[in-house]
Write a structure and sequence with these properties.
30% of the residues lie in helices and 18% in strands. By secondary structure, it is α/β, with parallel strands linked by helices. Pfam families: 2-thiour_desulf.
């Protein structure tokens, strides 16, 4: 599963591969990432589903911090109906980490602004559409284990989609 130039397989957000796993049962297909999956150079994951949440599901945001704070017990992930889904987000992050470790992934390309996958920006926890700097729960856990996490925008701007 290694790329010809020696880079290991990547973990990618499942929605990029065309999988309708977003909270609204839609995808966010990125053709070049979908190609990497087809070629065995990337493994799609959906931490929310892997943590036991259904699709579709209520949108959720981190309240009281970001993914680092969730892992440290200082913040919670709450859906727009007031349900605490923190444990599912942590469980999904652990499953994504296990997948990354199983395939030897050193990099993940994840969906920006997601409470799981955001690598620079997340929503601020008020369900007002307002964004803030911060990272998602899965990003925080992967980074704690030495896995580089970037967004699709960063990946595309770095020109890495030309592999």
């Amino acid at each position: 599963m290694e790329r010809s130039e020696g880079n290991k397989v990547k973990i990618v957000s499942g929605c990029f591969a065309g999988i309708a796993c977003r909270y609204d049962q839609k995808h966010w297909r990125v053709e070049e990432i979908q190609r990497l999956v087809r070629e065995g150079k990337a493994i799609p994951v959906c931490p929310e589903q892997m943590g036991g949440l259904p699709t579709p599901r209520n949108p959720a945001e981190i309240v009281g911090g970001d993914g680092e704070d969730v892992l440290d017990g200082k913040a919670r992930v709450i859906d727009n109906q007031g349900n605490d889904v923190t444990e599912q987000y942590i469980a999904g992050a652990r499953e994504a980490l296990a997948m990354a470790e199983a395939v030897g992934a050193e990099e993940a390309i994840l969906k920006e602004r997601s409470p799981s996958c955001g690598s620079c920006m997340i929503y601020n926890g008020t369900f007002s559409g307002t964004k803030k700097e911060g990272i998602g729960v899965t990003t925080a856990l992967l980074r704690r284990h030495g896995i580089r996490v970037i967004s699709e925008e960063t990946w595309e701007s770095e020109g890495e989609n030309q592999t």
